[in-house]
User: What shape does this take?
Amino acid sequence: MILSAHISLLLILFLTVFPIQTHGFVFGRMCLGAHQEYQMCGSACPLTCVDIRPQCGLNEIYICGKPCIETCDYKPLTCNKNCIYGCFCNATYVRKSNATGSPCILKSQCTNNTVLFGCGANEVYTDCGSPCPPSCTDLYYPQKRKSCTIECVRGCFCQQGLYRAENGTCVRPEECCQGQNEQFTICGTPCPARCNYTPGLCATVCVEGCFCNPNYVRRDNSTNSPCITSGEC
Assistant: This one.
């Protein structure tokens, strides 16, 4: 009897230290909670109710996304590389606002796209802009012929009355005329004088743009040609 008791005790101790698993049952381990089982190699981070994948809404997908959410009124400039699991907007969609439960809508449906598309100073966003927006080169004469397609272009454009400068900023028309010996005028001739050329017939209309100061002429007929005196021709 004593020997049998010792053997049973040793067997229990052995199974406690070295459990044996067979057909899903583990000898030597017993889980006390309901709906539990002992596993030889379980996860260190078991699932909880918080981890259960939720049912995502319209235009959403369950992924590990960035914690910095883009909305119609906010576009994060920087964000850490960590990700969190949850429902995120599909590509080309953003949250309408930062309110909880805010729907995912197309960027083009946002009221204030100036922030979303990162428009700069003196710029506005439009869904249907010109493929040939006003630029400072439009204010120089003689002008080169250019063709422009009839289509809508989405993006950031200079505000009404402003022109796109060579450095990409939006400026007033008078700020386009930065060349030496030139000035902006609202009533210039479309046929300005230049070296070895005096215009003959020319339309008697006023055009605004960048023109040489009095007693100066364009060196040649290229756009933005420097203004020099006749003696320098």
About this structure: The first helix runs from residue 2 to 17.
